[in-house]
Amino acid sequence: MKAFVTDGDQRPALAIVRSLGRRGVSVLVGEEHPVSLASSSKYCVRHVTYPSPERHPEAFQRFLLEFVARERMDVIVPVTDVTTHWISMNQDKLKRHSAVAAPPFEAFDFVTDKWSLLQCAARCGIPIPRTHFVDSIAGLKALVDRVDYPAVVKPVRSRIPTDRGWLRASAHYADSEIDLWRLYQETDYLASYPSLIQERIVGPGLGVFVLFDHGRPLATFAHRRLREKPPSGGVSVLRESVPLDPRLRDYAVRMLAPLGWHGFAMMEYKQDRRTGNVFLMEVNGRPWGSLQLAIDAGVDFPYLSYQIALGHRPDVIETYRLGVKSRWLLGDLDHLLLRLFNSDRALHLPGFAPSRWHTLVDFLKFAEPGLHYEVISGADPRPFLYELCRYGRDLSASVMQLVWRRVARGATVVKDLLGRHPQRHTTEATMLARPGNSHITRTRWFKAQE
């Protein structure tokens, strides 16, 4: 049996490749460059390079249709919003040659539209944050007086289709009306495309993983986020398996069963720290970043999804291990660096956030009962080596950019000072050239940085 997994640089792609490969499935991995995180795994039998789904969607579509017809894959597994969008939309064409591990397009398109999703959730009796819909910057004026702060501002879709490909978008924070207007004026996709303004729910993130077979729930799992990147909320870098709240399972059935959901999904919640109330934030209709945690705890979602894509009735274990933790080490390092080199205010952290010292101590806990590492594996070491090399290159590039920006800013300050006081700086230059005056040079430099 052969499976084709897209988006090989995504961590859930690696989890899928390892899961299927251990079960004896021959896994091919695709990505837009010649090597990727998942294709570095020993469970990948072949890497496939294809046109960028985000920048060249039409070329990607042509490539995939031709590839699947030629290679005769048994199952195609899309990983990101962009590839899942196109593959689910073209299931009829693809199913002539292969099964597809993706939900129906209408259902997927519905849950990726956060405004439609939240409206449906409210009708189903699922709690949601107070939310305002903004069609563009032109519509902001009509509702800006009704916004409570702090607020979260996010696009209706995390990936926005445009004439030039797909546009990546993310969430932002606004602490005042001034912040809100500045966000919409400076962020093109907020100014031009529909967005949401929500009350900020401060508290832990909860995730409910589900597997459906044509609208019928088969498997469920729950986790709590312990650390995220960025620290105020985003991608989880440390998470733990927890008991599934029956209410949250019921919410998943209310939301997804009427859509005829097929495959896996994750429902993301925030639990208000003050009241304990839980609010639905969004639904991921494709593989998610913490997928490896469920596998480590005993629920192998990738293999279960693979089986139902082939039309099989999988054997599902009703229970899973609690207290299992999964850590994305390099993501956790990013979390640490953000905390160490930024103020709590700059990171939009609440007042009860752990101190920098506490954050450092927690990061240094590399071993504890129940802790697993998401990418690191003694039996399959190459993906982490690949990730580590790429991380080092990216970090070096970021440091060099920072250095050059500071050098350029310092040069601009010096030039400005010389332009305004040419005679004084001629005298100072002579002083700096004398022995024993190096401390003056450092003083001038630090003042320029300030």
Molecular structure report:
α3 (81-89) runs antiparallel to α5 (105-112), α12 (329-341) packs antiparallel against α13 (356-363) and α14 (382-420) packs across α15. It is built from 16 helices and 18 strands. The chain has four domains: 2-102, NAD(P)-binding Rossmann-like Domain (Rossmann fold, 3-Layer(aba) Sandwich); 130-199, Dna Ligase, domain 1 (2-Layer Sandwich), CATH 3.30.1490; 205-380, 2-Layer Sandwich (D-amino Acid Aminotransferase, Chain A, domain 1); 395-449, no CATH class. Helix content is 41%, strand content 22%. β15 and β16 form a beta hairpin. The protein has a seven-stranded mixed beta sheet, sandwiched between helices. A five-stranded parallel beta sheet has the order 3-2-1-4-5. A four-stranded antiparallel beta sheet has the order 6-11-7-10, with helices on one face. The protein is of the alpha/beta class.
* Biggest sheet architecture: 7 strands, mixed
On the 0 to 100 scale, the average pLDDT is: 90
Q: What is the fold named in CATH at topology level of the largest domain?
A: D-amino Acid Aminotransferase, Chain A, domain 1
What share of residues is helical?
40-55%
The CATH architecture of the largest domain can be named as 2-Layer Sandwich
Q: What count of structural domains? A: 4
Class from secondary-structure proportions = alpha/beta
Low-confidence residue ranges: 424-450
Order of the strands making up the biggest sheet: 16-15-12-13-14-17-18
Give the C-alpha Rg: 25 Å
Q: Categorize the overall geometry.
A: globular
User: What's the level 1 CATH class of the largest domain?
Assistant: Alpha Beta
Q: Give the DSSP E fraction (strand runs of 2 or more residues).
A: 15-25%
What's the total helix number? 16
Total strands: the figure is: 18
CATH superfamily assignment of the largest domain? ATP-grasp fold, B domain
Distance between the termini: 62 Å
